[in-house]
Amino acid sequence: MSRDIQLKERWEKLVELLSNQFSQGEDLDLDAIIYLIGVQELGKVHRTFKKDEKLNLMHIAICRLLEPYGFYEFEHFDNDGWPHYKVKEALPPLKAGEQSVLMKEAIVSYFLEKELID
Fold this sequence. Notes:
The longest helix is centred in the first third of the chain and has 20 residues, at 3-22. Helices cover 57% and strands 9% of the residues. It has helices spanning 3-22, 30-42, 51-66, 96-113, and strands at residues 72-77, 83-87. A hairpin with a 5-residue loop joins strand 1 and strand 2 (83-87). With 118 residues, the protein is mostly helical. It has a two-stranded antiparallel sheet with strand order 1-2.
């Protein structure tokens, strides 16, 4: 099976799984899934977040997702328990479609690692 087909199948399976669990079956988009990963990584799942905190959660998720690719490195948790990352390597310029594929690939890898999908 080609890598692209496998990624597409895993992505669709993951979207269905997360959508059923978090949005009553309405398909979650890429940003919503990134947000959920940020909440998971912060570990404070039962609280309401302000708008700026939601952006920070998405940043945490992106850093965590791109860490295995060598773009970010975990630095520390602050006094409030929020993880901080440092940039190891700047992201190359990517077209919108390429960014989307990279993030989907990173998200699928994340959930494979967490053994939520196979």
